Amino acid sequence: MTRPALRRLLDEIGPVDAVGIEERAAKYTTRSIKKGSKVFGLKLAVTMVDLTTLEGKDTPGKVESLCQKALYPHEGDIPRVAAVCVYPSMVKHAAKHVKGSGVRIASVATAFPSGQAPLKTRLAEVRQAVADGADEIDMVINRGAFHEGELSLVQDEIAQVREACGEATLKVILETSELETYDNIRAASFLAMRVLRPGDFIKTSTGKTSANATLGNNQVMIEAIRDFYLATGTEIAMKPAGGIRTAKQALQFLTAVKETLGDAWLNNRRYRFGASSLLNDLLRQLETQRTGAYQAPWTFSDDSSGY
User: Fold this and answer.
1) 62 counts as catalytic
2) 4-299, superfamily in CATH?
3) Residues with Cβ < 8 Å from 288, sequence gap 6 or more?
4) Distances 94 to 32, 66, 247, 265 between C-alpha atoms, Å
5) Cα torsion 122, 126, 131, 132: sign
6) φ, ψ (nearest 5 deg) of residue 233
């Protein structure tokens, strides 16, 4: 059942052609990228990774190890990743190692991943993470309110978190699997974008549900970003998260960005991967391109988790 507020919003922004989305997503898997273009794409993907640890057993030592990998993923001319992403309690430990390096500190907040805490508590968590040194906040939307048709409440909460972030970048996690349909994903994208600042992100998933980023839900969201940009001139960034584990997948997602949003979005200010397990495969593929010999999975340390 489509609730009245959602129907009005979809009438305004237009529904999703689900068949068309799936056809476009399928075409990205047929693209062939080779040699120099492949190396360029692999290195670009490295710069877009938010290297993440989100476990109950996280320690300052584990965060330090994560930060070292973020700063020096591999020998040679391998670039640094975009950010390290940690729980709020670990922000101050990450700051000791990467603050001022160009690697940003991201923190999940607002009672991640469920979002099931009083708004006052969620806002306090955001403010504390920023005070401790977070450059970016990844928040989760109120999916329950969305499904109840309380779209104004969803948007108001995003706006209050945006205010609590101050100068920090905000990434709004839609949790696409719990939104269930492409129409809902498009609607939630517009709800968020209308109260975000240029350079803020919309994000697919927490990485904590059974289904996460796909080429399909990524396509719905980047088309929403394109349509919003054409209507307003506001440049919103995108972060698919969860389930992107191979270099081949990453190149498919980057192809989708290039063909839908253009080269202006092919940088880590406008596109990120919340997929820490991806980094090692990117490094293996780059080493393969350099030496001609495929590297074993255990060649590179795995200091990340959570996505």
Assistant:
1) no
2) Aldolase class I (3.20.20.70)
3) 294, 295
4) 38, 9, 26, 27
5) positive
6) 80, 5
Catalytic-labelled residue, pool 58, 135, 138, 200? 138
Catalytic residue among 62, 69, 203, 208, which?
203
**Tokens at 8, concatenated:** 């009005």
For strands 136-140 and 104-108, give the pairing: parallel
pLDDT tens for each residue of 61-106: 999 999 999 999 987 789 999 999 999 999 999 999 999 999 999 9
Please identify which residue in the block is written with the tokens 């090692």. 280
pLDDT at residue 293 above 80?
Answer: no
Strand order in the sheet with 136-140: 50-52, 83-86, 104-108, 136-140, 169-173, 201-203, 237-239
**Annotation says 58 is catalytic:** no
8 Å CB contact between 184 and 215: no
Domain boundaries, the chain: 4-299
Q: With 70 as the cut, is the pLDDT of residue 304 above it?
A: no
Rounded CA-CA distance 174/140 in Å is 6
> If you search the block for the tokens 């040679």, which residue do you land on?
76
Query: CA-CA distance, 14 to 8, in Å (whole number)?
Result: 10
Nearest CA among 207, 211, 268, 265 for reference residue 52: 207
Please pick, among 135, 239, 281, 303, the residue that the annotation labels catalytic.
Answer: 239
Query: Within 13 Å and on the Cβ side, how many CA atoms surround 246?
Result: 5
Mean per-residue pLDDT over the chain, rounded: 93
Catalytic residue check, 138? yes
